[in-house]
Specification:
By secondary structure, the chain is α+β, with helices and mostly antiparallel strands. Helices cover 33% and strands 16% of the residues.
Length: 210
């Protein structure tokens, strides 16, 4: 049964790669033993950037350490954002400093300060000058930026449109979503709205682009 399961998962991954689909979640390719924090996130459909542990705690860092190990061993496939996080930082790695084990890189994943108030990063919300807004950290300036996106009075019944795979694909194709990789732009978030639709009051999240 395990072999059959691995074969099926492998075929699904090959199809997704051919279609250039980014699922927005981590995918377990093989059974994972001895990595409890990672298994919890996989079972609950959580990404690394949705780390459930207190920021900077041992458990918080351990999740990234486990993800690095599993990814290196070919046990999981990371989504675009999680892969970029591990590739652009050393979070989850440790060094010895004056006889102590010290964690490297602790990027502020969940909270930051914007105009004097604490705000969540990379979590779209309804409202603002347009239909939605999100706070992000500009990788060039390191400053926090508020990005507004979505036509305030447009979109019609958004939940109905999101439930229609053909409409989602048409939107993604029309807006070249696979080419939008800059988090500081409205287009990036418009294309990835489906990944956060449940937190915006809709029934569930959807994989892929819009």
């Amino acid at each position: 049964m395990t072999i059959l399961k691995d074969v099926i998962l492998g075929k699904i991954l090959q199809i997704k790669k051919r279609k250039n689909i980014n699922t927005g979640v981590m995918i377990k390719i093989k059974d994972i033993v001895g990595l409890p924090s990672l298994n919890y996130h996989l079972e609950n459909g959580l990404t690394l950037s949705e780390n459930v542990y207190r920021y900077s705690s041992d458990s918080f860092i351990q999740l990234f350490s486990e993800a690095r190990q599993a990814h290196r061993d070919g046990l999981i496939e990371l989504n675009e954002e999680d892969a970029q996080l591990l590739e652009s930082t050393d979070i989850g790695e440790y060094v010895l400093f004056e006889g102590r084990k010290v964690p490297l890189d602790l990027p502020m994943l969940n909270e930051a300060e914007y105009k004097g108030k604490d705000v969540p990063l990379n979590k779209p919300k309804r409202g603002g000058s347009k239909k939605f807004y999100v706070y992000v950290r500009d990788p060039k300036t390191k400053n926090v930026k508020k990005v507004s996106f979505g036509a305030k009075d447009g979109g019609g019944n958004l939940a109905v449109k999101l439930d229609d795979p053909k409409r989602r694909k048409a939107f993604a194709d029309r807006h070249n979503c696979d080419q939008k990789t800059d988090k500081t732009t409205p287009g990036y978030w418009s294309c990835r709205l489906t990944r956060y639709s449940k937190s915006l009051g809709m029934s569930r999240n959807y994989s892929g682009y819009w």
